[in-house]
Structure formats: structure tokens, C-alpha cells
Amino acid sequence: MGGGCAKHGGCLSDYFAVVIAVICFFVLLSRSVFPCLIHKAPRTNSSSFWIPVIQVFSSFNLLFSIVMSVNLLQFKSHHWRRYCYLWAVWVEGPLGFGLLMSCRITQAFQLYFIFVKKRLPPVKSYVFLPLVLLPWIFGAAIIHARKPLSNECHLGLQWTFPVAGLHALYVLALVAFTRAVRHVEFRFDELKDLWKGILVSAASVVIWVTAFVLNEILTEISWLQVASRFVLLVTGGVLVVVFFSISSNQPLLSQISLKKKDNFEFQRMSLALGIPDSGLLFRKEEFRPVDPNEPLDKLLLNKRFRQSLMEFADSCYAGETLHFYEEVYEHGKIPEGDSIRRIYMARHIMEKFIVAGAEMEVNLSHKTRQEILTTQDLTHPDLFKNALNEVMQLIKMNLLRDYWSSIYFIKFKEEESCDKEGWSFSPPRISSVQGSDDPFYQEHLSKSPPTSRCTSPG
Length: 458
Fold this sequence. Notes:
The protein is mostly helical. The protein has helices at residues 3-8, 12-39, 47-69, 84-91, 93-116, 125-146, 157-180, 190-217, 222-245, 260-263, 269-272, 296-299, 303-315, 320-331, 339-354, 366-373, 385-403, 407-420; strands at residues 424-425, 454-455. The protein is elongated and about 90 Å long.
């Protein structure tokens, strides 16, 4: 381990650390991409999609900048050191560790407002995250203006401790937001995962910052230079994998287990929340005849009729109204005193149907949409009342009249006849459509017309 490789890079341990970092990053990619491909999750514009994407981006920046800034690899170009401020200051700082921690703080900020304040955050995530990142940007700009870096990209004693303190400041900010939501009884594991994230990040940051300080200050000790940069990269690789794998801000699709036994555990958010009879169509459900002259709200209480109408609407590519009714109907089953489950379900409905550009955005008036999105109480029992009234009008005017003359209604009547004659009914598949924040595997409904089967009870 000579002074040449310690100073200019290319030691055996350096390449070993790079291999570990590459493996860690590919593990990170597999955890973020493979579940989306397997579960065929639709792309969304919500923070539940783009914040994990930014975490992957910042993780790559952090690992790659360490490789480029601490002489891990030996470069023969004499002009490479001109890029010290790019790698050691900007990519490793604001675009690496700073961005990674800012994503976590943004998720904790969302949890605080949604579950403690019981409202959507007053600042959008795409605005809040850059605001959190500003201290890193200012710090990087100051260092770039003062130009304290040596030819080997080392900061020196004067700048090393302020930079290390900035790392610790972001961990403390994450602790502060997490403490604010510590009393909330989450339905899933958000709080536990946040605390795990804090413990992992705090332990990793302590090791990482210690190696960083030693690498920046004790530049004349060859073996310490080699050992510290090895620890920097390996600890960074472990940090980005474990940090991303711990979910928060509702369970994300990227954290779903790839084991087959977990794939069908939940098909709907309402099932995950334990809402009774959530969208289930039982084989021996009591027969209730349907009269087309009855009011729509009474007709929709019949599960078989609602299922048949929903399949007809899906076949017309206009099923968002029926799916919205179904989700709001399930939301209404949650007791008013159960605020946590009501918040989960309300937020799920808002991201799936209400926000502009949602996967199944329903056609609502601007006033009604804004009333929901700016509500001061996500647990209010009448949160979706006006929206539901508007959707019911759409169903009545655009779908119901065509349904009575469709093959779906004919099949529905045949199934009723089977019940009247004492035959058993083989129910259709549950109609479930993937929501933008729904972390549970769902099979998509086939667009082909339904088939009816009457089988002998024997």
C-alpha cells in the first residue's frame, strides 16, 4: 500500500469498495423498479412516485461523487482535478446526501400535516423539497466562491467541520418531524419505519462523517487515506440501500415483498384497512330484485347490481364514476371516531380521483374539487358529499340509460333467474383498479363482456 496509490487512487481496496458500491446501487434499482414492473403499477404525478425516483437519483449521485472526489480510481488526465468542485461540492452535497435527506424530511413533513393536523400540507412537495435543500445549495455556493479545495479535492480543517455539521443538521431535522408524529397510531408501519430510517441514517452518518473528517484532515497518513475512503464508499452504499428500503409516507409499491405469498394479501385499500365487506361479492348473498324505476342511490346498495354496472362502465372506459362511488361508499363504513383509518381512505380517494391529473380523475366542478383539496379536516363525515352528488348525476345521465339496454343488464337478469330457481351463482371477478398511492397488488379487470354461469347446487 504505497503512497502513490494512497494519493492518486487505484489501490486494491479502492476497487473492492467500488464493486460493493455498484452492487448496492443495483440492489437499490431492483427494489425500486422490479416491483413496479411485476405489479404493473401505473405512472403517476404524485409525490408517492417522484420522491422515490429522486431518492434513487440522489443515491447514485452520492455514490458516484464519492468515487470521483476522494481518489478511489486512478485517472491519468491532468485536467480531471478541475472538476473537484463539481464532484466534491455540488454532486456529493446538494445533489447527493442533501437531496436524499431532503426527500426523507419531506415525507415526514407530509405525515405530520396529514395525521396530526388532519389536512393536506399547505406547501406542495415539489415546493417544500427545494426549500429544505436551500442550506445545502447556499453552503455549496459559498465553498465554490471561496475555493478552499486542494489539488486532491480535500477541504482542510477550516471547512471540514462546518460541512460535517450540515450533515448532522439534516438528521436532527428528520428527528424533529418524527417526534411530532410519534403519538399517532398508524395503520401501517410509517412511524416505525421513520425511526428505523433515523437510526440507520444517524449511525451511517456518524461513521460516514468520521471517515470524511479523517480523509479531509489527515492527508499525510497514507493508510488512513485508503481506509477512510473505503469506509466512505461502503457506508454510503449501505446507507442508500437500507434508507430507501425503509418505507414512509404510506407504504410504497417499491417496498412490496416480491414473494408470491404476499401478492394477493390485499386487493384494495379498503381491504387493507379492514373495512367490513369491502367490495366483496359473496356467493350466497341474499337475492334482491332490481327495479329500474327505483332511485339510483337505492339501486347502488345492491352489490350485484353495482358490480354489473361497474363492469359496464369499465367496458365504456367511463368507470371512474362507479369506482369513485365504491371507494366513497367504503369510506362511509369507517366509524367517525376512527380518525386514522378515515384519513388513510380519504387521502387514497383524493389522490386516486380528485387531484388534477389523477389516474381516475372524476369530472367535478372547480368549487367542489377545491373544497376537498383545501379541507381543514380529512376526517369530516361530509368530505365527499358534494362530489358524490355530482358523480351520481353523471352516472344517472351518462351510464344508467345505456346500461338498461346493454348485454351486461341481460346477463344480470339471467343471474337473477338462476337465484330464483335455487341455482348457485358464480360471481364475477372483483373490479379493482390500481390507485396512484395504493401499495397493494391488484389484478386489472378484463374489458371483455361478463359471462354468466348457473350451476347445479348439487
